[in-house]
Amino acid sequence: MKISLPELKKQVHQMPMDVRWGDMDAMGHVNNAVYFRYMESVRIAWMTAVGAVPQPQGEGPVIANAFCSFLRQIEYPARLLLTLYVSDPGRTTFETWTTIEREDQPGVVFAEGGATVIWVDFPRQKAATLPQWMRDIVAG
């Protein structure tokens, strides 16, 4: 099943990543759980770049859910291009979307997925209002 990225998504980050030998499973392709690590890597790189780093005694982002559609198998060796999009800033959340391509096959999406990010007050263990600076970044 192919998901559709929302029309109002905003591309915010892109990064290359090498498939490691250990990313493969017994069937000789990248293990399905590893795709979530790839999506996490691009999401964390972007969040770090914009200053959205969790502060254990304060507030920060947490993933509320994550999903992935596996469209084509990826095998080692490969160099990937991960593209991150954001959309739909709400009171406490926003959406992230990721596409995974091989650099040697531009425009061919091998997997796509996303995650809902919720802003959390860590000491209280409760959702917090998405800061205006983050809302501005996501809304663009």
Task: Describe, in plain words, how this protein is organized in 3D.
By secondary structure, this protein is α+β, with helices and mostly antiparallel strands. It has a single domain, classed as Hotdog Thioesterase (Thiol Ester Dehydrase, Chain A), CATH 3.10.129.10. The protein contains two helices and six strands; from the N terminus they run E-H-E-E-E-E-E-H. Strands 1, 2, 3, 4, 5 and 6 form a six-stranded antiparallel beta sheet that branches. The protein is elongated. It starts with 9 loop residues before the first strand and ends with a helix. It holds the Pfam family 4HBT_2. GO terms for molecular function: fatty acyl-CoA hydrolase activity. InterPro entries: 4-hydroxybenzoyl-CoA_TE (IPR050563), HotDog_dom_sf (IPR029069).
